[in-house]
Write a structure and sequence with these properties.
Number of strands: 3
Helix content: 10-25%
Oligomer: single chain
Number of helices: 3
Structural class: little secondary structure
Radius of gyration: 20 Å
């Protein structure tokens, strides 16, 4: 729709493609940052009962996940092409800020409850109808007049993590193995 996002914070809806692609495209178009929200049409009350009565995301639930450019290379952003193992010397790592996999602009997820007042006060042309979510007003694509300041603090310290994997032998298919994370 030819909306100029240079120097602006992009408000993007989850879905249709990987969240990292949304940040990548926003960065390529000069955006200053990205806020990603889950719409109740996709995984909230529009689909059914929300948590705790049902499985769908509550108004205050935010979807979290990597926005790293995993399409650049898989794995640890600080060890392109090398397995990230505890014995790897620091000389084989690159600084987090130098990684081609890491966005250069900040991004954060928010709930649709938090996106509501931003979307409700966003101006500009009406969004295409297939972009309309389940919040009770017409979505617009901007710019303004709503204003947002985005201040994020990131901690990139290396830490040991553990995955706990449990096996539960079933009665119907005792040989079948599944993992719980």
């Amino acid at each position: 729709m030819k909306i100029d996002v240079r120097g602006k914070i992009v408000l993007a809806r989850y879905g249709q493609n990987f969240r990292g692609v949304k940040v990548f495209v926003a960065q390529e178009h000069g955006a200053a940052g990205v806020i990603i929200f889950s719409d109740p049409a996709d995984d909230g009350w529009k689909r059914g009962d929300k948590y705790p009565q049902g499985p769908w995301r509550p108004d205050t639930g935010a979807q979290r996940g990597s926005v790293g450019y995993m399409f650049q290379f898989p794995g640890d952003p600080t060890t392109p092409g090398v397995a990230s193992v505890p014995s790897l010397p620091d000389s084989k790592r690159i600084a987090v800020d130098e990684s081609a996999q890491r966005p250069k602009i900040p991004s954060t997820p928010i709930s649709y409850g938090d996106a509501w007042p931003l979307l409700e006060h966003l101006g500009g042309p009406e969004s295409p109808r297939d972009w309309q979510g389940a919040l009770p007003f017409t979505y617009h694509v901007g710019p303004g007049p709503v204003k947002v300041k985005l201040h994020l603090k990131q901690d990139f310290q290396f830490r040991t993590i553990w995955d706990v994997i449990g096996k539960i032998r079933g009665t119907d298919s005792p040989g079948r193995v599944g993992c719980l994370r």
